[in-house]
Specification:
The first copy, chain A, is α+β, with helices and mostly antiparallel strands and 241 residues long. Chain A has 2 domains: 153 residues, Nucleoside Triphosphate Pyrophosphohydrolase; 62 residues, Winged helix-like DNA-binding domain superfamily/Winged helix DNA-binding domain (Arc Repressor Mutant, subunit A, Orthogonal Bundle), CATH 1.10.10.10. Helices cover 28% and strands 27% of the residues of chain A. In chain A, strands 1, 2, 3, 4, 5, 6, 7 and 8 form an 8-stranded mixed β-sheet that branches. The first copy, chain A, has a two-stranded antiparallel ribbon with strand order 9-10. In chain A, a hairpin with a 2-residue loop joins strand 1 and strand 2. The interface between A and B is large, with 49 and 49 residues. Chain A binds a DNA duplex (30 and 30 nucleotides) through helix 6. Chains A, B: Pfam families: NUDIX, WHD_NrtR. Chains A, B: GO terms for molecular function: hydrolase activity. Chains A, B: This is NUDIX hydrolase.
Chain lengths: 241, 241
DNA sequence: GCAACATATATGTGACTTGCAACTAAGTAA
DNA sequence: TTACTTAGTTGCAAGTCACATATATGTTGC
């Protein structure tokens, strides 16, 4: 925009602006299935429904910083892989006022996910039920521990659906999968992550070859402990994330 | 966010909000190279620099609608493929005040691109010089007609770089390329689009097979006109976009 | 009407990738 | 020592892709 256009068409004091928020999809794995951390809303609107942790963007913080703050304050998580997902701007997405929300995807290794659940924040885990294959897209459901679908607040079902879609799309050509694993992991664990996200079984030798040929993995020389059978080699990311 | 959190932590009247804008990457092809339409800024800040067309998001319009409006009002383009790219929220991206901008990618077929250039809006075309291969990523330059790099305003160089990156990534598995072509086109034209975006030559028979095997294309039965050699078959998209 | 020409379109082939099944290796447990 | 379970490997068929080559079909010039 030119400054003339700007001054002529928009007086920042005179025209009200949409509010700007960030919402976080806190995604991890539970029992080999994708899961998210949600907050139960106690007040209307959408009281009793489940919502993504979110917060407003301060004037003095970037979007990424706002997402980190929400991660810390609302979920009690110090560190996680965070990436911007999409910005949702429907007029009626929040009944109170116009709120535009920048959705972020946070990927939590199993341990962080469990710690966040046990922490101060009143978070609950919900299994993501994805009824479509590949990158078809479509709605997803968040299931309670008993397998019942949870009612989601606002447009958060759409945000969850997009999160799964994006993750599936990036899984094979990027290193996001490692954000869901501890620092050291076996190839089987890596395959389990891929299978959980994609929702389909993968061929073991082919997967192994592909991963090792990529050159991202470095064997540690140590093996996993505590198994009652042959322990697998532990790997780590060669170029740390 | 819970409503309690919301009311406790954020009084919409008391706390100032970032301004929210959309910026458009108007992308087309010129002489087999990717090109964008830019506006020269006449006022400070960044007077004399080149900027993406943009505008503020109204309280009563969605992000997509705001992008359509900018497309119409600032570029005089009635219709184009529009998709959200990324939301830029650095604190100092605009020296006047805090502005968060949702960047959109608009894809223009050659004809729309030329019409926009000849229209009312004072747009100029700039060739995109992409000095990296594949999806490496990195900075891009906008070149004037004489091949000199143009000084870009704000963080618009970053936005352009991301636009190229995204387009390259989506080119092969989505149908975005067709948004850069007229309704009817030859396979050679389609290949030219791919080569221009990717910045590398492609193998003809392989490209042809891949495209035809996808099942997206439908031969029209007619051929291109005006060639001084064997005219190629014209295709259209089977499932219109 | 006929060759020259330029490009469209099709075919053939070897290198590489992927999916699957069967195999060997290495640990625990009894 | 043997049974068992999972880790990790090997071999091969099917499919994909890049490249070279061959054929087809329009225009242009004579």
């Amino acid at each position: 925009m030119s400054e003339a256009d700007f001054l002529a068409g928009y007086d920042p004091a005179a025209f009200p602006r949409p509010a700007l928020a960030v919402d976080l999809v806190l995604l991890g794995l539970r029992d080999g299935r994708p899961a998210v951390l949600l907050l139960e809303r106690s007040q209307h609107p959408h009281a009793g429904r489940w919502a993504l942790p979110g917060g407003f963007v301060g004037l003095d913080e970037t979007l990424d910083k706002a997402a980190e703050r929400v991660l810390r304050e609302k979920a009690g998580i110090a560190l996680a892989h965070l990436e911007q997902l999409y910005t949702f701007g429907a007029l009626d997405r929040d009944p109170r006022m116009r709120i535009v929300s920048v959705a972020y995807l946070a990927l939590l290794p199993e341990r962080s996910f469990a710690e966040a659940l046990d922490g101060e924040a009143p978070l609950a885990a919900a299994i993501l039920d994805v009824p479509w294959a590949g990158e078809t897209g479509g709605p997803v459901a968040a299931l309670s521990r008993r397998g019942e679908p949870l009612a989601l607040a606002f447009d958060h079902a759409d945000i969850l659906a997009l999160a799964v879609l994006r993750l599936r799309g990036k899984l094979d050509y990027s290193d996001v999968a490692f954000a869901l694993l501890p620092e050291q992991f076996t190839l089987r664990q890596l395959q389990d992550v891929h299978e959980a996200i994609l929702g389909t079984p993968l061929n073991k030798p082919a997967f192994r070859r592909r991963m090792l040929d990529r050159g991202w993995l470095k064997p540690t020389g140590t093996r996993e402990a505590g198994t009652s059978f042959r322990p697998a080699e532990l790997y780590r990311l060669a170029r740390p994330r």
